[in-house]
Amino acid sequence: MSVELVEVVRSGFRECVHRGSLIVLAPDGEVLISLGEVHTPVYPRSSNKPLQAVALLRAGFVPRDTAELAIATASHEGEADHVEAVERVLSDAGFTDEDLRCPADLPGNELARAELLAAGRPPRPIYMNCSGKHAAMLATCAVNGWETDGYLDAGHPLQRTVTETILELTGDIEDTDLGIDGCGLPIVPIPLFNLARAYSRLVTAEAGTPERAVADAVREHPFLISGTGKDDLKLMRAVNGLLCKAGADGVHAGALPDGTSFAFKIDDGHERARLPLTATLLHRLAAGPASNSTTFDTERLAVLSCAPVLGGGVRVGTVRAVPGVF
Fold this sequence. Notes:
The protein is of the alpha+beta class. It has a single domain, classed as Beta-lactamase (3-Layer(aba) Sandwich), CATH 3.40.710. Helix content is about 35%, strand content about 20%. The protein is built from eleven helices and twelve strands. The chain has helices spanning about 50-60, 65-70, 80-90, 110-120, 130-145, 155-170, 190-205, 210-220, 230-240, 275-285, 300-305; strands spanning about 5-10, 15-25, 30-35, 40, 180, 185, 190, 245, 250-255, 260-265, 305-310, 315-320. A hairpin with a 5-residue loop joins β9 and β10. α1 packs across α6, α3 (about 80-90) packs parallel to α5 (about 130-145) and α7 crosses α8. The relative contact order is 0.18. The mean pLDDT is about 95.
């Protein structure tokens, strides 16, 4: 069963609670914290993107620079830098955003969306938060001479390669049915234990490997993989060398440079639980052996661990990890 992980306290009263499951692994794979159903497969959603990017590199995707590799892992906000990076990936491979098969969308960032609407411009696939991944997949198809019209299909050579790579990186997963992610691509269900282990593999891989290249690109470009005010940007700026990637419906996974890793899923999928839970967890890890190889901004983490609840424009409560949960 899942456990109480995050609570919402308003005006001194416990208003509601978010339940879920969480795993933390030491660099050697030893379980440091295990709460809830950590061996039951979940859909990691966009937390799978770094693993998908490893598959693309292995299959021949050659990004121009680390920014192009980062955008291939992104859940971006459709801001100018994001769109430009996606356009570069497409252009380098001979495509335009008309070749993307992700849904047309408006930017997630409020300012970018308002500017687009004010200019009378319609939704486009390139603004969709997964467009960087789709652009990189098109580029990988071009390198291999694969048809692009059906690149979303689970039976397409690209998607078979992606699935095989994810299963290899996560390991020990029984055959499970693929789901369909919000962008239309197949999504591999993974237990939280295995997801955390895979993130540890990314950060501890040897330099020059696809795994390490993805980890380094994400950590070099936290804004490109997320956007203004997003959780991953805030957290990677607070912890030097942290790799983390949020997924829809309350999923988060990450790893510190020494290989300490974590993954969790909030049962009700509420996004507000993610930041305070991860920040609190990282604050605790700052007091352990991981601090020997990582610089933690503990003051910033303390602020992030207590998200405000507003009433009438003023703070009347807090979203926080359940005291004593770990």
